Amino acid sequence: MAKKTDTEVPINGLYDEGGKLKGVAEDVETEDAVEEMETEVSLSQEELVALCKESVCPGCDVYKEAEGVRLRALADSENVKKRLQREADEMRKYAGESILADLLPILDNLDLALAHTDNLDAACKNFVIGVDMTRKLFLDAVKGHGLERVEAVRGGDFNPEIHEAVGTVEDGELSDNQIAQIVQGGYFLKGRLLRPAKVMVNKA
């Protein structure tokens, strides 16, 4: 069989001018593309992330916008978690608020009973002692749940944040805006004002 030379014209169009069979390059390129696609599909998550980092420029606007959205979403999620935690803590801390508020009238009545014992005879002395002991036991019990009495004494300064003025009096022994009388005791529950102390305020 005669050897094909460089000057020979391709037979029936099967060869190109370089002497290579037509269509071979296209087939090779197609096979390479298929192999490349199979390689991409079989990439692991770490490899995909690495490819993304190589392909996306950290300085481009698209990357910056996506990063901003991601950071805002993380911040919003963290804020929601903190708010829910605070609300749960508040709920646990003040769970007994309504119950303790309902018990305050009992303390008020015990205080009222002890306030009118000055003119009682000796026969009632044991009764007064019993009432006073009951009041102390009751106070100790509610203190264990965070209940504390608001400071309000005759001659003390009126504080609108913890005192409620129910009237005014003129007492020459006191200065202006001082407490002249405690009408009803006030209470804190774990540092939060549960009920202000009701007082009469002196107006000189």
Automatic annotation (TrEMBL):
It is found in: Cytoplasm. InterPro entries: GrpE, GrpE_CC, GrpE_head. Gene3D superfamilies: 3.90.20.20, Head domain of nucleotide exchange factor GrpE. GO terms for cellular component: cytoplasm. It comes from the Bacteria. One of its GO terms (molecular function) is protein-folding chaperone binding. The keyword Cytoplasm applies. Residues 34-94 form a coiled coil. Keywords: Chaperone, Coiled coil, Cytoplasm, Stress response. Pfam families: GrpE (PF01025). The keyword Coiled coil applies. One of its GO terms (biological process) is protein folding. Homodimer. Belongs to the GrpE family. Participates actively in the response to hyperosmotic and heat shock by preventing the aggregation of stress-denatured proteins, in association with DnaK and GrpE. It is the nucleotide exchange factor for DnaK and may function as a thermosensor. Unfolded proteins bind initially to DnaJ; upon interaction with the DnaJ-bound protein, DnaK hydrolyzes its bound ATP, resulting in the formation of a stable complex. GrpE releases ADP from DnaK; ATP binding to DnaK triggers the release of the substrate protein, thus completing the reaction cycle. This is Protein GrpE. It comes from Pseudodesulfovibrio cashew.
